[in-house]
Amino acid sequence: MTRAQMKGMLSRGGKNCRTIVLGNLAQIDDKFVTPASSGASAAVNIYRNYEKGSVLIFDEVERSTLADFTEKNF
What we know:
By secondary structure, the protein is mostly helical. It is 35% helix and 0% strand. It has 3 helices and no strands.
């Protein structure tokens, strides 16, 4: 997702909206987007200091068999 696409998605939240953004910078499949230019990186950098939000970064996660299967076969 590009920075503009992320902004478009996050700027549409209404009152009492809750948004969770998940992403893996190693899974970018757009030749015009890099980990540094991605919307996910921009969101982390922008919302890191937002008092009404949280940013969690995981070094490692346990993946489901569905996620593994999908990544290999989709």
